[in-house]
Write a structure and sequence with these properties.
The chain is an alpha/beta fold. It has a single domain, classed as P-loop containing nucleotide triphosphate hydrolases (Rossmann fold), CATH 3.40.50. The protein is about 50% helix and about 15% strand. The chain has nine helices and seven strands; from the N terminus they run βαβαααβαβαββααβα. The chain has a five-stranded parallel β-sheet with strand order 2-3-1-4-7, with helices on both faces. Helix 1 crosses helix 9, helix 4 runs parallel beside helix 5 and helix 6 crosses helix 7. The N and C termini lie close together (about 10 Å). Bound molecules: adenosine monophosphate. Adenosine monophosphate binds next to helix 2 and helix 3. The site of adenosine monophosphate has 18 residues, from helix 2 and helix 3.
Length: about 220
């Protein structure tokens, strides 16, 4: 299964991709997580990406495409993968199609998780995440057992710098301008499925599994 998750920031892509990755035993590939890791490690990619990521703007297509091309060559992606937060522009979507053509494969499904922007601002404002393992929490609906500490690895939870209100607004604007056109792009390929993202986590996951087809 080769799957892409599309949706506004805060729609639940990361949470849902993680669950699906465990269920299907294929990797979750999040360009946001990879970029944050590169920034934490101080690599040259991390240094180039920092100003974009922290201000909520998109990292240039060539950098992100290079990152994905390298990641998809990893043997763990041979059986399939879930892309979370990539592609975000039509240029990236075309680049991804090109990479897959070279390996004689294609995307099976693109899941668009739909969410009201008002719900989203609340979710992001109360989001806390673990910089060590990437686990995501919410101050009300998914609280860690001990305040400020990751249940999974004991890391110190942080608020992402790009989850501040004016940066959230910028990310929503960028989504509408750059990423929303991908809905039509994948609809034309007949692989787009829309799933409502406002239910609880398990309900959204089962809607996603149904959208992937029988036995998933
Ligand atoms: P995310 O964790 O998916 O919300 O991504 C956080 C930030 O990383 C975004 O606001 C962008 O600055 C950057 N980023 C992640 N994925 C991409 C992508 N596919 N294209 C460009 N920038 C990206």
């Amino acid at each position: 299964m080769r799957v892409v998750f599309l949706g506004l920031p805060g729609a639940g892509k990361g949470t849902q991709a993680r669950l699906l990755s465990e269920a299907l035993e294929i990797p979750q590939i999040s360009t946001g997580d990879m970029l944050r890791q590169a920034m934490a490690d101080g690599t040259s990619l991390g240094k180039q990406a920092r100003e974009y990521v922290e201000s909520g703007r998109l990292v240039p297509d060539d950098l992100v495409l290079g990152l994905i091309a390298e990641r998809l060559r990893n043997p763990d992606a041979a059986r399939g993968f879930i892309l979370d937060g990539f592609p975000r522009t039509e240029e990236q979507a075309k680049g991804l199609d090109g990479l897959l053509v070279k390996t004689g494969t294609r995307l099976d499904r693109v899941i668009l998780i739909e969410l009201d922007p008002v719900v989203l601002a609340d979710r992001l404002g109360k989001r806390r995440s673990c910089p060590v393992c990437g686990a995501v929490y919410h101050l009300e609906s998914r609280r860690p057992e001990h305040t400020g500490v990751c249940d999974e690895c004991g890391g110190q939870l942080v608020e992402r710098p790009d989850d501040q209100p004016e940066r959230i607004r910028r990310r929503v604007e960028i989504f509408k301008a750059e990423t929303a056109p991908l809905e039509a792009y994948y609809d034309r390929q007949h692989i787009l499925a829309r799933v409502a993202g406002d239910g609880d986590i398990a309900d959204v996951q089962s809607a996603i599994r149904s959208a992937l087809g029988p036995g998933k």
